[in-house]
Amino acid sequence: MTIKAFVIGHPIAHSRSPLIHGQWLAEHGIDGSYEAIDVAPDALPGFFERLRSGEFAGGNVTIPHKEAVFALCDSVDPLATTIGAVNTLVVRDGRIHGTNTDYLGFLGNLDAEAPGWSDGPNDAMIIGAGGASRAILVALRRRDGGKVHVLNRTLEKAQALVEEIDGPFEAHGFDGFPELAAHTGLVVNTSSIGMHGTRFDWLDFGLLPKTTLVTDIVYAPLVTPLLADAAAHGLRTVDGLGMLLHQAVPGFEAWFGVRPSVTPALRARIEATLEH
After folding, report:
1. Residues 5, 32: contact at Cβ < 8 Å?
2. Is the pLDDT score of 276 beyond 80?
């Protein structure tokens, strides 16, 4: 019997998840399918009834449903609750379990592209205190590094975030960058700065150690303004595409029973779709 999985969102046509999972299904010769399904917010409860009927083994959840599915799942793991979003659903015996694999995608991407990035006592810096930053905080909490500094345009928002998620976290405004830069080994952009012509006019890359790794969770464009500026200053960079690829691994394994690999061929296939 064909094992079926999905990604739901609204809209969903832009999703690259069917390409990722489709390649893995072909590689492993699995009798399975993975489709993108457009589900409007008011149709979400009805879709969950389809899930409980056993039509699917599970699937992924993207915007705008990552928060709304909490109330519809039968169980949600603690990490997804902390992150505040569900991106992966697994159906077992008519019950729907929700989890979040974004933090695993973030760690998997850096481990693959910058081995040893978390070794040493250096601190990390997260730019932005919105929903996207929560998974990164959870990821960095799982590594025994230094402190994690959250920099946000509005200091109060950064403070609220670090108080909500327990860990070695400190909140700062953008004006805290010069003082923190010298001890920073990792810079992660989770904000929308750099998109639509906006710039990091307060971020002086020259103050960062030459060993600092800079990454952006955005993958379209592949080289964001932050990464371009960091590379121009001789700093190491990792783009956000690998996070998309690595976060897909746990779900595929849960639905289809095989743990897939993120290969150069897979990355090249997805990267080609970013050029259009």
Report:
1. yes
2. no
Q: Which of 4, 66, 147, 210 is catalytic?
A: 66
Determine whether 4 is an active site residue. no
Q: Residue 158 has which token pair?
A: 């950064």
Query: Other CB atoms closer than 10 Å to residue 37's CB: what's the count?
Result: 16
Express each pLDDT in 101-145 by its tens digit: 999 999 999 999 999 998 877 899 999 999 889 999 999 998 867
Number of residues that this document lists for the chain: 276
What is d(CA 124, CA 116) in angstroms, rounded to the nearest whole number?
14
Residue 248's contacts (CB-CB under 8 Å, 6 or more residues apart) are: 17, 20, 21, 60, 101, 105, 260
| Residue where the block lists tokens 């694999």 | 101
Q: Output helix, strand, coil percentages for the chain, rounded to the nearest 5.
A: 40, 20, 40
Report the largest interatomic distance among the alpha carbons of the chain, rounded to a whole angstrom. 60
121 neighbors 145 (Cβ within 8 angstroms): yes
Dist. CA 148–CA 175, nearest whole Å = 16
CB 179: neighbour CB atoms within 10 A?
Answer: 11
